[in-house]
Design brief:
The protein has 2 helices and no strands. The protein has about 70 residues and is mainly alpha-helical.
Amino acid sequence: MGTFSIVHWIVLLAVVVGYGYPIWLILRRAGFSGWWVVLWFVPLVNLAAIWFFAMARWPGQEVSQPAGT
């Protein structure tokens, strides 16, 4: 106990990349900064972030109105 093996760090990196990259892509397509992905790795904050993104107006979905309407 007390030290982590190289296997631990490889598994940790695989989990971070495996979850972080798809979430980053979704955030970018929705119009948010990819840096919001950091919230997904903070316990309880990730739940608040999911609710925020579910209820927020997504910049990527805004449709511009034609001029004069």
